[in-house]
Amino acid sequence: MRSIDVFCVFPRAVEAAVRVGVVGRAIERGLVDFRAFDLRDFSADGRIDDMPFGGGPGMIVRVDIVARALEEVYGVPARELKEERRVVVTEAWGRRITQSYISEVSSDRRDLTIVCGRYGGIDERVSQVIADEVISLGEFVLSGGEIVAAALSDAVIRRMEGVLGNSESLVGESFSSGEDVMGPPQYTRPAEWDGERVPAVLLSGDHEKIRAWREREARLRAAGCLPDPQPGACRESAKGESL
């Protein structure tokens, strides 16, 4: 996967969120192609939505506008695009994005196309006929899919080879080896701030003890944070034993 395209109403919002930091530099260096398109550019009158059949509140993004946008950009019938690109649609009820899903997308031989929902939703035929799947950040409603597209793009791009200065940064981070695995607490200077001291083991120079401490804290954090953390559980696990 070396290319990500986003089709939405506010491409500048997606660009602003993605083209920063290590991910932004990866795009500038050509490690990945990233583009964001305005769906309104593919409508004769600039409108991409209409009232829902059967009545009801909210406007629905039209399937013909989405199809036209994809066909003009890729030059193939919209329903055939899945053969060469992974096409996903953002909706609140979609498959929740997890680290395992990010790994799945990253390892897909196909490039990625994200179609963002907005208004009262997107015509069901987009997810049924054009897209591979529907995705979501979680069980809550956003005003549009641009935030989802930016989050997915960032998470996928940062896993690409050469994006992070030190690839070992991916090892041991939260969810890197399972959905119930979290990274350990991390500290930096100063060693003491307002009476709060860094765990002594981290200053000991004993790498074996540090490794053991981090593994234990990561397990405690996971146990305290999943699936339904109690208030303060994460903080308590971070304190742990000093040595």
Q: Can you give the helix content as a percent range? A: 25-40%
Question: What structural class results from the helix and strand content?
Answer: alpha/beta
Strand arrangement, major sheet = 2-1-6-5-7
Total of DSSP H or I helical runs spanning 4+ residues: 8
Largest sheet descriptor: 5 strands, parallel
- Please report the distance between the alpha carbons of the first and last residues: 44 Å
Number of strands: 9
Order of helices and strands: EHHEEEHEHEHEHEEHH
The fraction of residues in strands falls at 15-25%
Query: What would the principal axes of the Cα set say about the shape?
Result: elongated
Unreliable residue runs: 237-243
The averaged pLDDT comes out at: 90
User: What's the alpha carbon Rg, rounded to whole Å?
Assistant: 22 Å
How would you characterize this protein structure?
The structure is a single chain. This protein has 243 residues and is an alpha/beta fold. Helices cover 33% and strands 17% of the residues. It has helices at residues 11-18, 21-28, 63-74, 99-106, 124-130, 146-157, 207-225, 233-239, and strands spanning 3-8, 33-38, 49-50, 60-61, 85-96, 111-116, 133-136, 192-193, 196-197. It has a 5-stranded parallel sheet with strand order 2-1-6-5-7, with helices on both faces. The protein has a two-stranded antiparallel ribbon with strand order 3-4. The protein has a two-stranded antiparallel ribbon with strand order 8-9. Helix 4 (99-106) links the parallel strand 5 and strand 6 (111-116). Helix 1 runs parallel beside helix 6 (146-157), helix 4 (99-106) crosses helix 6 (146-157) and helix 7 runs antiparallel to helix 8 (233-239). It is elongated and about 65 Å long. The termini are far apart.
